[in-house]
Model the fold of this input.
Amino acid sequence: MELILSSAGSYPRIGESPEAQRHRRAYAQQERGEISGAEWRAVEDEVAEQVVREQTAAGLDIVTDGQVRWYDPISHLARNCEGIQINGLLRYFDTNFYFRQPVVSGRIRRRELVLRREFEVARAATDRVVKPVITGPFSLACGSILEGGYRDRQELARAYAEILAHEVADLVHAGAALIQVDEPYLLKHPEEADLVREGIATLAAVRGHAHLALYTFFGDALPLWDEIMAMPVDVVGLDLTYGPKLAERIAEAGTPRSLVLGVIDGRNTKLETRDAVFRILDRALPGVRGPVGLGPSCGLELLPRARARAKLENMVAIAREHAGRDGRSR
Amino acid sequence: MSREKLRKLGLDLPILPTSTVGSFPKPDYLIEARAQATRNAITKTELDRLERKATEFWVGVQEELGLDVLVDGEQYRGDMVAYFAETMPGFAKGGLVRSYGNRYYHKPVMTGPVRWPGPMTVDWWRWTQSLTSRPVKGMLTGPYTLMDWSFDDHYPDRRTACLALAREVRKEVEALLEAGVRIIQIDEPALSVRPDELPFAVEAMHLTVDGLAAYYVVHACFGAFETIYPGLLDLPVDNLDLAISHSALDLLGMFKKDPFTKDLSLGVLDVHSHAVEAAGDVQGRIRRGTSVLPADRIWVDPDCGLKTRTVEESRAKLSAMMAAVRAARAELG
Done:
């Protein structure tokens, strides 16, 4: 079976060499007021283009802009909303990465759409499919502090869903064929699967001809298999680094849905061996009837840049070998 | 109970013993010196002299404030994991990884078998102890956190890496005991990150301390403790130091359901806030602690290392804590 090789979202924005640290230097310069907003945006565009080209060169079929303009997965989408102030840092899951918590004090309203331009810059830099990524409404609600405007997290998640629906519609209008929705907090709150589904349905209602991909990561999706498979999306991305049982479940339960198998560990530097990846693919693939993607378990920004690239190149080489073994060549 | 153990170790501490979690802010001259040292602009001897000067300063502050169990303040450490990773063979300096905004750090990588290189903290402990008649804690980062906060290119899985680290950290514990340390704090802030891994974190702690006589404190912060309690009580240590100041003391409610069986260090100061707590508020937190556990099993400290605060904030926060402890002791008679 031919695998569709896909990015999972974020990508490191700097490398080790001085020339690879342009983003870091410009960031400091814009903080000190030494460069204009336009100059800073130009650097961000340039870094996004590099990141897209790097994924393209590695051999991916579906790439992202690396979310290089995002301060973090939560505050980027909340930043331009009325009713929200951006607060202090909080640890993002069990990573050593921290995000800024949006504080919701009143009804939220989008001041401007932010993702379309990011998508268009990335699309101009590659001939591959560019996949915009958004953090889902439930995860945004979980990462926020609710002080007013809504009674509870459920209401806030619905409000975020309305805002994100405008972004999705705008992306579709701009030509996005595939949009990834990250809902990592679903795995921490399995009891809220209905609320997650409701939020995704709001986005699905405006997706037109585009496909929606739901991604969960930083945990084992096995206990939520049925709920995730019932989500109104076209593609499901799964983190397969939390144990072998999820691949077993895919094989046993089967699914008509298109899956992206997050076999490449986006949180550790060690390169996957061919045998380890083959083992999972050989176990899971017979259970999947739709197209199958292969990708990192999560965005690669938790890795150093050189290792992120090496991970992708290694993944592509393994996938090609796998396809070759099956009598196909990519 | 562990107070008996403390006595056997020759430590007669007052009710509600006070301590800190380990790190103190580095004075400006030391921050500058460390930056110069990375550019080879000053000698290692000069840096060492300034690190000792800063350590001496913090020992003086702790004595002046009346703390019962002192720390060296970690003036010679950049970061709680990096310090050990830079010292232990088997670790390499990793590439840059973003922690937030425009902040990046070199996350260590285990590239081969990790090895204890000989004492890593003993000289600092011995020298700090020579400055004071009060007991000074030995301070180590635990195997689970060393594993979790590093990349691993070498070991087949996280458990194997964690247990390998535990065997090496144990050698540092042995060296500290040989030097005369009686209280050792093992920092495990990562402990609650993956609840399903708690069993091997506990196994690693057994490998680290079993059969080695000292009073052990495990410090864990950033916690989602509801996910690892009461399993946390399986750690073979005497005292659990938990960040409680900004978690609305929910933990104490959990203790009512599953009795807490160890001594508890109540982290009553929020080290992530610039605001200096009112002594009355701190005393209220202590009172909540003594409402669910006997006072002779409670220690009082900040909820994490103070290194992110200024020197002045640290001193003011600790003053408030000590005032609260004095009032609480008076209340307890």
About this structure: The mean pLDDT of chain B is 93. DSSP finds eleven helices and eleven strands in chain B.
